[in-house]
Design goal:
12 helices, mainly alpha, 75% helix, Rhopdopsin 7-helix transmembrane proteins
């Protein structure tokens, strides 16, 4: 798309922003993000290595956990180049097409995480409500099919986004409000008719987060009903304890999303730094927390970690 002088409406590069209003302390922020990435990447790689290595973890629950760890690695590596470039090397420019690619992968992995959490809630539902058929319902083939289905759903629903953005002119500058590219951020500097982008964006959010969260709540309502029907208090607690890791992972993912939505809707005059920090929490905290949650809350994961350490010390 060209203007009257024959120059492109899209800028060659977009300028990324660190944290608005923070003129000092960039070094500490860079160190903080480096620590987050180190914990996230090391933790998720460790989970994957444990599940592959330990035959005791070759079960549906841990296959889904491997999907979650692999997806969290995708989230981390999608944001890592521009975040480290912004905070560590003070390089704040990204090519327009590269920005669209990053936007696509960030949103795709985010929506995939929602689908994986839904699959994990189904795993817990079958394990508690129909334990006798657990192995026959969640076969390796069905788990693989579910994983590929989540990937296909996220990819196909997000695929139009770069092309919908590409068609728009950009006449409100080229400065984005984050250290990475997000669709809502690009819409703030785009001109022309953005209604299609906004409507399709709302549809995708409802189609993914809305439906997934509804079915997660439904599965836990059925799980709670089944648990309350157990006569033994000890058995009830044991059954609920198998769900605690997944509940914590769901909260770590959905609470920041809800908080971001509430701020955008009811606190529109919030300082830009608040919006940026909440978006950072939404993208960086779940990949960091998930390995920690499952390492602390899951006995088999703890046992596998201790087994690896004991072998390394011999």
């Amino acid at each position: 798309m060209l203007d009257l002088n024959g120059t492109p409406f899209q800028p060659a590069t977009l300028q990324l922003t660190g944290i608005p209003g923070m003129q000092t302390g960039q070094g500490w922020v860079a160190l903080f993000f480096c620590i987050l990435y180190l914990i996230s990447i090391t933790g998720n790689l460790s989970i994957l290595a444990l599940v592959i290595r330990e035959s005791a973890l070759h079960q549906p629950m841990y296959y889904f956990l491997s999907m979650l760890s692999l997806n969290d690695l995708g989230v981390s590596f999608s944001t890592l180049p521009t975040v480290l470039g912004t905070f560590c090397f003070n390089y704040r420019h990204v090519g327009f097409d590269a920005c669209l690619v990053q936007m696509f992968f960030i949103h795709t992995f985010s929506f995939m995480e929602s689908g994986i959490l839904l699959a994990m809630s189904f795993d817990r539902f079958v394990a508690i409500c129909d334990p006798l058929h657990y192995a026959t319902v969640l076969t390796n083939r069905r788990i693989l099919t579910m994983g590929l289905g989540i990937l296909a759903k996220s990819f196909t629903t997000l695929f139009p986004f770069p092309f919908l953005v590409k068609r728009l002119p950009f006449c409100k500058g080229n400065v984005l409000h984050h250290s990475y590219c997000l669709h809502p951020d690009l819409m703030k500097v785009a001109c022309g008719d953005v209604h299609v982008n906004n409507i399709y964006g709302l549809f995708v959010v409802i189609f993914t987060y809305g439906i997934d969260s509804t079915f997660i709540l439904l599965s836990y309502a059925l799980i709670l009903r089944a648990v309350l029907a157990i006569a033994s208090r000890e058995q009830r607690l044991k059954a609920l304890n198998t769900c605690m890791s997944h509940i914590c992972a769901v909260l770590a993912f959905y609470v920041p999303i809800i908080a971001v939505s509430m701020i955008h809707r009811f606190w529109k005059r919030a300082p830009p730094a608040v919006h940026v920090m909440m978006s950072n929490v939404y993208l960086f905290v779940p990949p960091m927390l998930n390995p920690i949650i499952y390492s602390v809350k899951t006995k088999e994961i703890r046992r596998g970690i201790l087994k690896v350490f004991s072998k390394s010390q011999r």
